[in-house]
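Reviewer 2 asked us to include a model.

Predict the structure of this chain.
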Amino acid sequence: MKACSAAVLAVLATAASAFAPQRAFVATRGDVTSSAPVVARMAEDSSFDQEAFIAESKEMRLKYLEDQAMFALKVSCENFDNAVFPNAMIAGDVVITHLLGRLGYLKDGKCKVMVVDTFHLFPETMDFLREIEEHYGFKAEVFCAEGTPVGDKAAYDAKYGADLWKEDIEQYDKVCKVEPFQRGLKTLETDCMINGRTRWQGFERAWIDQFENAPIGGGLAKCNPLAYWTLEDTFDYIAKYNVPHHPLHAKGYPSIGDAKDTIPIPEDGSTRFVDFKFEGDPVPWLDYASERKGRFVGLQNKDGSTKTECGIHVAGAEQTFDRDLWEEGAVKEIESTDAAMEVVKSGKPAVIAVYAPWCQFCQGMEEEYAKFAEAADADVYKFRGDEVRDFVQKELNTESFPTVNVVKPDGTVVKYESEVRTVDAFKAFVDETLGTTV
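Predicted model (structure tokens):
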């Protein structure tokens, strides 16, 4: 033990000497026997270069954070078979991309990069993705709203509506962000998810650690390699290594999301990150919880609170649609627009629910509508309308989902206007419309 202690002391002494100040310090106090703290000052003939000292301190901090982040990435990529990095190409994400590239995990495929295209991103974002793919030698897996080809905004508009985000922001998040994100993780068989969340981003994330279990996939392993970084650390690192970064930083955007609700901070664009250095006052960007001030602008949750998260990283995010509705029971399926018109022109009374499986209100009425179908004498149908919006708007009174229609024997289609979706309410409306008991 003594020998061990001596060896340890020797190492500590060596370490201490390596970090000892090169200038002479003089301890000053009135009484050397006093228990008052010692105040250190530099010798009279020495000068103190404050800026140099700060720069050196920041360099030491950055080196430690870099080592810590690289260790976290090594743990993730070496100990899990399918590490996946969902990359939004914001400042922290480009640092992680750089580190993964330095470690060789992008080229050798030990870490896959996943991107969610919401169809509402800035055009510069997908252009920048192609730039970093070429720079680091990888190909990202891109996921978007279910049932729409990658990059096909027109197909998205036709299926979900160009104004879905205005009509129902929570459904927009599910359709364009959460569901593609979940599907991407599942498709890539992810067992460890790497992401760029940090404590500095705000109180919702103030207690995250480098490793945790995500509230998805039954507790998916989650690595936050930059958990303890500030945004200043992030931009210092980008500047130090000339890390490729999103071009909109040069136009005043500290963080980049959807073009529809992302603005510069300050709004006049006076703070910018150009040629690896700040122009203007960096404080509006670098202050605590300020990185995402320009995100989700003008958006509110349904409870009236200000929107601060897209829903991907919160508990309950796994509760997205992964099946059709009314797969069993008495509700009959209409499989095509021609079949829908046959029902309308059949001369028989019927009830048709025009729905979208991703719609929470359709999901919410699933049980009641199924029970209604079991008790009804008339045929009760479902018709998926999100894929044929023009048709259902014209023929089935549908502007939003769900829309329940009663078809009269003469072919008249009468819309159920109430939002009370219970067995009794459906039955009462049908009885009133048809003048009979179904």
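The chain has a mean pLDDT of 85. The CA atoms of residues 418 and 425 lie 9 Å apart. We have added this to the supplementary material.
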